[in-house]
Amino acid sequence: MAESSPASFLTQADALLRKNFVFQKRNIWSNIRLVTIPFFLCFLLLVIQMLFDSQFNDVHGQCGCLNEKTCGLRYSTSEQAAFCAIPKPPQWTPLLQIPAPQYRAVAPYPSRSSPATFFFTGKNQSLGKILMRNMYTNFSEFDGDLANYVLGSSSLPAYTNYMDSTFLSDLPIYNIQHECSPNSSFSTLIDQFPLAFPKEINCVQGLNLWQNSSSDVNNELFRGYRKGNPDEKINEYAAAFDFQNTNRNILNVSVWYNSTYKNDTVVRPMALIRVPRLVNMASNAYLDFLKGSETKILFEYVKEMPKPETKLGLDIASLIGPLFFTWVILLLFPVILTTLVYEKQQRLRIMMKMHGLGDAPYWIVSYTYFFLISFLYMLCFALFGSAIGLNFFRLNDYSIQLVFFLICINLQISIAFLASAMFSDVKTATVIAYIYVFGTGLLGIFLFQFFLEDPHFPRGWIIAMELYPGFSLYRGLYELSQSAFAGDYRGVEGMRWGNFENGMKEVTCIMLIEWLLLLASAYYIDQITYSRKHPLFFLMQNSSKKKQHHFSQSQISKVVIEMEKPDVCQEREKVEQYLLESTENCAVLCNNLKKVYSGKDGNPQKLAVRGLSIALPQGECFGMLGPNGAGKTSFINMMTGITKPSSGTAFVQGLDILTDMDRIYTTIGVCPQHDLLWEKLSGREHLLFYGRLKNLKGSVLKQAVEDSLRSVNLFHGGNGDKQVGKYSGGMKRRLSVAISLIGNPKVVYMDEPSTGLDPASRKSLWDVVKRAKRKAAIILTTHSMEEAEVLCDRLGIFVDGSLQCIGKPKELKGRYGGSYVLTVTTSEEHEQEVEQLVHNISENAKKIYRTSGTQKFELPKKETKIAEVFQAVAKAKMMFPVVAWGLADTTLEDVFVKVAQTLS
């Protein structure tokens, strides 16, 4: 494979996009299930709408005609009347609103037949007396015209005056009199075309009370106003008049009416339909005051405008759409968040970064990728909603919807990027994300919408609530749905740019500003946490030129350790010499590298790496041996940028790991201790992705992938095209090694690469590493002494964060293993005789092992001759039975154990 230059931005972006689209292709069924959710909800709204139209309009919304389509109300019920064609609406007599018997003021009349009480005040008491006199009519002289009498009712006002609830209910009409005789009730015929029916008229006693001022009236009304449930003691009054400064030149009157008696489902002005009779009474009192009782204004009737036959056009989707559509849009949030957190949890992003993927390509491509998915999702959602005829989509301007949805999905992606910095576990992120989705919808419809529709709730608090992105989304959908509902009801178009104002303009601006601010915040937090940049990195100058490092003797940090071995001191001196000359002469140069982890929960600080200094030339494989927890992985993490050194630094190809890590990533390969792979991608797709990051293209890339698969025995049997989730542990390990070597990196870090491999695969892997070290410097950690001896040109034994010895394998065995190991197995009763025999060979012999008659001894090479050992064993066999014996030279494992135990 030919050497390649660092990959450009476009090459990295192309590699990441290809990988993402392949990953998306593997999740095709999950994507289909996701897309069906908005289709299902839109279809559900359509079914609900069809059921409503068929069941309500067809059953309750018919006129009730027998033979003619336009038949007025002759054959209709009160429920059907609202839908009938009424060319000649009936003329209803205007009425007063009289409190129901159980609510009328009881003081000073404690009986249930309490009067209907009216208050009067003002400077001109004569007007009040006239109005009181005119209120009481004598029905004994009834002439059949109800308009000449002051009548009242305790029923609620009707929706309209097409079918007045008073005349169609069982409740009586009241005639106000001074005193009600026992036989004062009678029935009269109500003849209002097209209806004619008898109606009972009952007497109600009226009580008129004069008050000194309007404040006294107001206090009485407030004290008697209904505040609780019907079982509480309630003193309600019929009405009150304040004639103020009325005289012969001016009429100035205020009228109080009881708004308790209104239908809450009706728009508020509808509650005024019982007020006109009160105004008429005040007007007639003033005319009587000026002209006498013969002059009056006759208030004959109230009637509606004529109307055609109608149906109840209730747009269900526009009414409950904000809740459903909020859920539909927010369902993308958990998908994006879990994808980002998964890459973080599985350390896949740092793996991509270590193989050359820059922050800018990652952010731009990832954002674009999520935007394209979200845009297609929303486009399918809107097109399907329009296709099935939902007015929410059809009536509102499509360009307004496009702008709103684009801002929504961009804001949602920004929130996901920002939230991903707060989570490190996919399960936790998923639970929180779905709580956010469904909680936002439910709070929106049951809390936010309640405040939104309350005209007395401060608008400033509404804006404050809209700063929460979920509520701003809900507000926008609410405004669109209200426009669609009003447009459908009035038969006009919904929201257009001409009426794009108030709430919609407000939330659009809020969401647009939040999108930009949250995106910038997410990028900033990512840079200082994940990429570990300085908090003021954006103010620092970032030169693209290669930095030259020149050190004087005074700048080189020296560490004096009393017990440091000569070979370690020699290595440190070599590092200092390279620093004085040029850091580019070594592939890897570590200068007094330290890593200290802060203590937690009262525990002391942990010194993971204590002043490590090593120099690695190109083409050398350096093996790091050490027990678990010695600091080997911490060292590799510092060299690969996962963690920052506490002090000291290192250079890779002359680039400082503290300042040039992004450039270093283009020259290194990493095989981490744990396999960092996408379960849905195949081995070939992994190698293609990382090969592109190494700037391999075309036939060179394909050949490199083929060679890599063959080198790690993943080519045959179709293993290279299997998804990694179906690989065994050993196959994943081999793939990780292949990934670290693709693209001919200058420096390769391998953290226990042969873990979990069978002997044949291990031997094949060793051949791959041997070939790779011809062009690269390799740092390898392992627990296999055989592997270290076969692959490594030099070894360093690492114990408790410190380098204890360094050198070639033979040098270490000669330096720390200057002895033979004699093993003798006899019966237990002859153990003392064996021990005495060994001490005769060498007085400094040392027993290192004993169990059930088997003993091991170390014999110093300087004092031991192999011929004497054979003679001693032959002599021993004549004296007592020797089951087995053996003489071996010191192994690398013995050296490792000896060094590790010396420091333990």
From TrEMBL:
It is a multi-pass membrane protein. One of its GO terms (molecular function) is ATP binding. Its main location: membrane. Keywords: ATP-binding, Membrane, Nucleotide-binding, Transmembrane, Transmembrane helix. Gene3D superfamilies: P-loop containing nucleotide triphosphate hydrolases (3.40.50.300). It holds the Pfam family ABCA12_C. The chain crosses the membrane at residues 34-52, 319-342, 362-388, 400-419, 431-452. GO terms for cellular component: membrane. Residues 588-825 form the ABC transporter domain. It is found in: Membrane. Belongs to the ABC transporter superfamily. ABCA family. CPR flippase (TC 3.A.1.211) subfamily. This is ABC transporter domain-containing protein. It comes from Eutrema salsugineum (Saltwater cress).
